[in-house]
Amino acid sequence: MVLDLNVSIRENKSIPVIDLEGEIDVYTYPKLSDALQYVFETYPNAKDLIVNLDRIRYIDSTGLGVIANGANQIKKINNGYINITNATPQIKKIFDVSGLISANFKIFDNEDDAVSSLSK
Amino acid sequence: MNSIKLTIPSISDYVGVARLTASGIANRMKFTHEDIEDIKIAVSEACTNSVQYAYGDSPGDIEISFNIYDDKLEIRISDSGKGFDIDAEVKTKEDDPEKIGLGLGIVFMRSLMDHVDYETSANGTVVTLVKKVSL
């Protein structure tokens, strides 16, 4: 079980993708926050950003707070969106309970769906 | 009733330890996978509040009691910090994206557990979480 958070950044059809592995909590969330700031600085014109939760098994309010903050930022900067992919049913439930799924926040079942939708 | 006690320092590094302990106990009590995940989040949120708000710059202890009944798990998370007005904290910070976690933490505890009790004073805060075993 990974109690830490590993972060990597890549592109898929010019869309920046943040791959996350492990757990996002009060200890690890600064890594996600740093990754979001790095993407905003490296891709200043990006209207979309994918956050891939395929290998995330745990997220709590601190992680959702960082993602919501990032969604607000990309909305302000480029009228853009954060797109969540590959969330487990439990993590989708947490997003539902949070009430954070809003106009600048989208959830896709997988990355292919996200990329094909965002490339249109 | 059996009881298991855990004390962790009020620093973020150890919240995961409390979460893993909760997971192990809930698993032994044969909670469903979904219930175990709910319990992990609620315990983490209570510990996170103590880490972030109880002691300021001088960390103290967070004491966690897992009280095991036949039909429920009761978890008491307590600190001896300064305490805080939870509703006031949520209200004053709701417009600050960096602080969104606090309000959400309370929402998660109340949504995911069967009962949540919150006692706070100048001498500390005690959060009691209860999850019933599904029959």
What can you tell me about this protein's structure?
Chain A is an alpha/beta fold and 120 residues long. Chain A has a single domain (5-118), classed as Transcription Regulator spoIIAA, CATH 3.30.750.24. Chain A contains 4 helices and 5 strands. Chain A has helices at residues 29-42, 61-78, 89-98, 111-118, and strands at residues 5-12, 15-24, 48-59, 81-85, 105-108. A 5-stranded mixed sheet of chain A has the order 1-2-3-4-5, sandwiched between helices. In chain A, strand 1 and strand 2 (15-24) form a beta hairpin. Chain A is globular, with a radius of gyration of 13 Å. Chain A starts with a strand and ends with a helix. Chain B is α+β, with helices and mostly antiparallel strands and 135 residues long. Helices cover 41% and strands 30% of the residues of chain B. Chain B contains 4 helices and 5 strands; from the N terminus they run E-H-H-E-E-H-H-E-E. Chain B has helices at residues 15-28, 33-53, 86-93, 100-112; strands at residues 2-9, 61-68, 72-79, 115-121, 124-132. In chain B, helix 2 (33-53) runs antiparallel to helix 4 (100-112). Chain A binds chain B through residues 1, 3, 23, 25-27, 58, 60-62, 64-65, 68-69, 72, 90, 94, 97-100, and chain B through 12-13, 15-16, 19-20, 34, 37, 40-41, 44-45, 47-48, 51-52, 97-105, 107-108, 111-112.
